[in-house]
Amino acid sequence: MCGIVGYVGPRDSQDILVSGLARLEYRGYDSAGIAVIDDGGSLAVRKRSGKLARLREALETDPIGRGTTGIGHTRWATHGGPTDQNAHPHLADDDRLAVIHNGIIENFASLRSELVGEGITFVSDTDTEVAAHLLARAYRESGDLVAAFRAVVDRLEGAFTLLAAHEDHPGLVVGARRNSPLVIGLGEGETFLGSDVAAFVEHTRRALAVGQDEIVAIRPGVVEVTDFAGNAVEPQPFEVSWDAAAADKGGWSSFMAKEVSEEPEAVANTVRGRIQDGEIRVPELEGLDDFFRGIDRVVVLACGTAYYSGLVGKYALEKWARIPVDVELAHEFRYREPIVSESTLVVSISQSGETMDTLMAVKEAARLGAKTLSICNTQGSTIPRESDAVVYTHAGPEVAVASTKAFVAQITALYLLALHVGRVRRSLPDEVSADATEQLAALPEKIQWILDNEQERTEQLAHWMADTRSVLFLGRHVGYPIALEGALKLKEISYIHAEGFAAGELKHGPIALIEPGQPVFVVVPSPRGSITMHQKVISNIEEIRARGARIIAIAEQGDSAVLPSADEVLRIPLASPLFEPLLAVVPLHIFAMGLATAKGLDVDQPRNLAKSVTVE
Ligand code: M6R
User: Fold this and answer.
1) From start to end of 214-370, where are the E strands?
2) CA-based nearest residue to 598, from 426, 503, 461
3) Which residues, in sequence order, are CB contacts of 290 under 8 Å at separation 6+?
4) Which of 117, 192, 255, 524 could form a disulfide with 555 if both were Cys (CB 3.0 to 4.6 A apart)?
5) Phi, psi of 236, rounded to the nearest 5 degrees
């Protein structure tokens, strides 16, 4: 939440900051602002509530002179509504110091009282302004911006990435991070800071990760990093594996449309290099092989869509690796004295690698002695760095707030993990392993088939349903998490009431929701798998049909038993039961996107949300 960018170098910083913010806007889009030290040595600030377009307009009507040092921010409001006044940067030291912030300063109220007691007047409702005034006070004592940060960071409780620029120091931006993301970009004679690499990837792919509790000072082509105590730190270098074009919309109507179209590629890239001689081999996991042999339990931690991918992964891990698996919402795990031991593997799943709830749960699991493995899509992010091992999904940058291609890549990575661990523990018969490996390799083509053959019809259906007020989703076994994912996607971008249920749970209560005309999506398991499960889902369909529900079935090609029971059938190619979720979810992603589009909504930036949830 909140996007942050900083620049020092020979070029005019304004365009660099604004284009960085455009790439970070998915992190928050309530308001945006920049501060630039212009070539005359004055600090100039422009900030506006609303989307970045409003800031661009402000810069056109009231331009800032050329300046090569600057910071920029795009906000997801926490303290104080999305107004011009609450937009960042916040100013202090007679408007000569500008500060931007991502996170929440939990003790801001007491700090604010202290500062008010000293006669400071606050002009915003934000927690950030407290940090600005504390930095100004510390700076006045030493005249050294880095020393000022060192004096202030320990007074702040909660989560923060703070960046500051001071009129006295053109060519310098100082930042600090605790529990919030920050990465450095290294250009030729120029240096960048960003909440993530998207902030600067169009200028450089060479990056450095800033660790927890570190302060960074950037000058043109120069970087100094210390811990909060002032000891020098060697930041970890990495090369960004994708280029700016991968994070562009291309010719697509939305990022979400582009990202759904990339689902086949996301699966293919996540599998690539991890099949050797027909067997799954995940080199990143090999260091844990001895540990895998002695594991007694797996706990999966994640939020939102990533949590649903974990629910799917549970079926594979239990089936192939024969280990009991609990899948938990990360924010619930942390606060209930969880029981994990040194033989527990804790698997976190996060597209961004920055979700605060997940990060905190991982830290708690590590503190309790568990081994931690991260499944993540974002290089240089915090959760992998806080984990003992990481398996990256290679879905490429995901910009739309609604997670789509990352979801299929997460399930793929979980399947790779289950197959790898199953082989190491000898719980996986060779023929099952061979079949699963083949199924994984064939998935991208099957997903592509859905996009080529069912997308138009699904969008048409969404269009007809644009006035629908409520949609229900049903699934059984691995189809159940897919029902949950279908419902979340619809809520998130269409603002329609949607709920997902386990089909077997219907008669325990939710069937009371069914009234004539109620649309219900049903994920139908293959009749070639467990015939009983297929028959049971058909019976569930009949039960709700008898009460007037309108059924949209997602069923495999050739399943004719579904035809008399369903009003619409969306087809998916044949796959083994465990692989069906990776296919059945595709029409649901398309449907949610189609319905939001039909309602004229912004599918990439739905109201009240942000891509990366970096506050608890
Ligand atoms: O970055 P993460 O995968 O950790 O994000 C977790 C959730 O916030 C995320 O999946 C969210 O539910 C999506 N917006 C759903 O589409």
Assistant:
1) 214-219, 222-227, 236-239, 275-276, 279-280, 297-302, 325-329, 344-350
2) 461
3) none
4) 524
5) -80, 120
Decide the pairing of beta strands 206-209 and 183-186. Answer: antiparallel
Using only C-alpha atoms, the chain has a radius of gyration, in whole angstroms, of 25
Q: Is the CB of 303 under 6 A from ligand 1?
A: yes
Phi and psi of 34, rounded to 5°?
-135, 155
Identify the pLDDT of residue 427.
Answer: 96
CA distances from 408 to 214, 262, 405, 487, 581 (A): 34, 10, 5, 16, 9
Tell me the pLDDT tens digit for each residue of 35-53: 999 999 999 999 999 999 9
CA 513 to centroid of ligand 1, rounded, Å = 28
CA-nearest residue for atom 11, ligand 1, is 304
Give one word for 198, left, alpha or beta, with left for phi > 0 and alpha for psi -120 to 50: alpha
pLDDT tens, position by position, 76-94: 888 899 999 999 999 999 9
Nearest CA to ligand 1 atom 10: 305
In angstroms, the CA 141 to CA 155 distance is: 16
Choose among 318, 382, 327: nearest CA to 356.
382
Counting DSSP H helices and E strands in the chain, the numbers are: 18, 26
Strand partners, 98: 91, 165
Q: Give 403 Cα–ligand 1 centroid separation in angstroms.
A: 6
Does residue 91 contact residue 55 with C-beta atoms inside 8 Å?
no
Sequence letter at residue 261 = S
Concatenating the DSSP letter of every residue in 365-377 gives HHHTT-EEEEEES
Between the CA of 597 and the centroid of ligand 1 the distance, in Å, is: 21
> CB under 8 Å to 218, separation ≥6 — which residues?
6, 8, 172, 173, 174, 175, 184, 191, 192, 193
Digit-coded pLDDT (tens) for 394-449? 999 999 999 999 999 999 999 999 999 999 999 999 999 999 999 999 999 999 99
Q: Which of 2, 47, 258, 303 is catalytic?
A: 2
Tokens of 244: 């700016």
